[in-house]
Design brief:
With 621 residues, the chain is of the alpha/beta class. It has helices at residues 4-24, 26-64, 66-74, 77-92, 110-123, 161-166, 169-183, 189-209, 214-233, 235-252, 255-282, 294-302, 308-320, 332-339, 353-358, 362-398, 408-421, 428-437, 441-453, 458-469, 474-487, 491-516, 531-543, 578-588, 605-614; strands at 102-104, 130-134, 139-145, 153-160, 547-554, 565-572, 594-599, 616-620.
């Protein structure tokens, strides 16, 4: 199996090759993308045709030959074949749930649907079956196949309430036109088809992941290879589709409106997060009663809350971002350059699309959103308030105590609570003082993190020390070191830590697999269990009358051997139910170690007997 780094480099090479072909030989590139798109359908319909042909052939043979029919029944071959057909058809029939949200209707919001109807007609776009309003500053069209992999999609337009409150009607039309453009004939039939196929295969994978049967497993093996390979090779076309959809939006509205919508989408949403949402959520730290956000958000946006210099600074930051290697959505600077519309500054509209299209019902919408928000988040708000109250109370108790009187746990709590609840106090000296007194990888990690955030290279050694002492910190440590080197413009050094992180991902994946599986080939040894573990096992045996004896063995781990994995084998009384007793025993064994629990006389008797031979008996009734 290829490593994470090898898979990434393979996909990157495929993307680069596809981009070169798209530039040098565009007709050949489009032909290859089309053939790859057809490959997925050929596999699906090939499997279906084979199943149908097999079932018809078996039926014909059974009718033609009584001997063959008897053989099918006697050997139970017919049931095996029908079972294979069933599981594969079930895998192909992937069920997708349509997006759920606050549904808008043409009767209630005629202005919105009039504009949507006009845009769809101009673009010759497929019918939009439903429009859903969501809280986010985003817009999208989601196609939900009603016949699984065989298509017949239901099209849902998703509009973000925050987005509509941040754009003028013309700018919001440009956003909708962009989304419709992906699916429309105006976009180009081939480009629109490839766009839908890219999204469709990913949804197929998501649907197959939810199924647990042999057929789905076989289909997953193909799509796990096919979908990312097709996505990578069609990447250049997907990126050009974004430019084409922008051009469609500019054609139906204007270059100025399309450009302004892009700038507002890239810049204003970030400012709203900083200036409205962050302070809003901070209220939960001090106010017990949950607040509702959407009415205040409307008022905030209507007051032109951003200063000109702030807008200029954020706009410059957004324009400085380059298109990433994996970004099908190009960077703002590339999209504006393609539109040839200049670089407008972000500007809040005098009349928002939300006011224009939702009209008098906007107040009702905001009230409904606030009510739904309180229903979903009221309990979390209360939990956050209680947590902050307890944290501040503990901090107030610990702060005046002399450092030399603090226990190890109190010292650590003082440092962590100071960082979280005392923003005016530098927590670094507290963590450094704690680390001077106690060897602790977690302290090394926090010290390293705080130093790296300040641009201090001394944090490198601290992070690396933490990673070496505590391997479970390695992945986060790699990401912090990558961040540090990226912030200094040292991309080569940052790339080394990306590779190290990918190696750690592979190690973690391998560790998870060896802890999730137990086979007859696995080595089992005498357990290195402590007295507390043995006591828990004995207590479980005493509490469950169906358990006669319990043995304990250990499966040595190649990865993270300090985190032990135990194999618990047990013998049951004559009339005890094996499955029920196994579940009860698992519930009784509240141990930090990973456990496999097997019955000596059950389905995994061979492995259980090996555990009995290699391990020790810990309980006998």
């Amino acid at each position: 199996m290829k490593s994470t780094t090898e898979r990434r480099e393979h996909l990157e090479a495929l993307i680069c090759r596809a981009e070169r072909e798209a530039q040098q030989r565009p007709d050949l590139y489009r032909a290859k993308v089309g053939l790859m798109a057809l490959l997925g359908y050929l596999v699906i319909f090939g499997v279906l045709f084979t199943l149908l042909a097999l079932s018809v052939g078996i039926g014909w043979a059974a009718l033609a030959s009584t001997t063959f029919a008897i053989l099918l029944l006697k050997k139970k071959l017919i049931f095996v074949i029908l079972g294979m057909i069933y599981v594969l058809l079930r895998a192909l029939w992937v069920k997708f749930d349509a997006p759920d949200g606050y549904r808008l209707t043409a009767k209630q919001y005629p202005q919105l649907f009039d504009r949507l109807k006009t845009l769809s007609r101009q673009l010759r776009a497929p019918r939009i079956h439903q429009v859903i309003l969501t809280p986010e500053a985003n817009a999208a069209i989601v196609q939900t196949p009603r016949l699984g992999v065989f298509g017949f999609p239901k099209n849902t337009l998703i509009l973000g309430l925050e987005l509509l409150m941040s754009l003028s009607p013309a700018q919001a039309e440009a956003v909708i036109a962009h989304e419709l453009g992906h699916l429309s004939a105006a976009h180009g039939r081939f480009g629109g088809w490839i766009y839908r196929v890219r999204l469709g295969w990913q949804r197929i994978i998501d649907g197959l992941e939810q199924q647990q049967n042999i057929g789905a497993s076989l289909m997953r093996r193909f799509f796990d290879w096919y979908a990312p390979t097709f996505a990578a090779y069609s990447f250049a076309l997907a990126r050009s589709n974004e430019f084409a959809a922008d051009a469609v939006a500019a054609q139906l509205t204007s270059r100025a409106d399309a450009a302004q919508a892009l700038v507002n989408s890239y810049v204003v949403s970030g400012l709203v997060n900083e200036r409205f949402w962050a302070p809003f959520f901070q209220q939960a730290d001090c106010n017990e009663q949950p607040a509702a956000p959407f009415g205040p958000l409307r008022d905030f946006l209507s007051q032109a809350p951003f200063a000109a210099d702030e807008l200029q600074r954020k706009s410059a930051e957004a324009m400085a971002v380059a298109t990433g290697h994996y970004d099908t959505h190009p960077a703002l600077s590339d999209r504006l350059q393609a539109l040839q519309a200049g670089t407008p500054l972000p500007k809040m509209p005098a009349l928002s699309a939300a006011h224009a299209w939702l009209g008098e019902r906007l107040t009702t919408v905001l009230t409904d959103f606030d009510r739904l928000w309180l229903q979903r988040h009221g309990d979390k708000w209360q939990e956050r308030f209680n947590y902050c109250q307890q944290g501040r109370s503990q901090l107030a108790e610990l702060t005046p105590l002399p450092a030399e009187t603090l226990s190890r746990d109190q010292h650590w709590r003082l440092a962590t609570l100071t960082e979280e609840f005392a923003p005016d106090i530098d927590p670094l000296p507290l963590f450094q003082r704690y680390r001077a007194a106690h060897i602790d990888a977690n302290a090394d990690f926090v010290i390293g993190r705080l130093l790296l955030k300040r641009g201090d290279a001394a944090g490198i050694d601290a992070i690396q020390a933490a990673m070496q002492a505590k391997p479970e910190l390695a992945l986060d440590g790699c990401r912090w070191l990558e961040y540090f080197y990226r912030s200094r413009g040292e991309d080569a050094a940052a790339e080394q830590w990306v590779r190290r992180a990918e190696r750690q991902i592979d190690v973690n994946h391998a560790a998870a697999i060896e802890r999730q599986n137990l086979t007859r080939k696995d080595v089992l040894i005498m357990p290195g269990a402590d007295d507390d573990t043995l006591a828990v096992l004995r207590a479980a045996g005493q509490n469950l009358s169906g358990v006669k004896r319990i043995w304990l063995a250990e499966k040595p781990m190649q990865h993270y051997p300090e985190a032990k994995t135990y194999v618990v084998a047990f013998a049951k009384t004559r009339f005890a139910n094996e499955k029920k007793l196994t579940q009860q025993l698992i519930a009784e064994l509240q141990l930090p170690q990973n456990l496999f629990v097997l019955c000596k006389s059950g389905a995994y008797a061979a492995i259980a007997k090996r555990a009995i031979k290699a391990g020790i008996e810990v309980y006998r009734r």
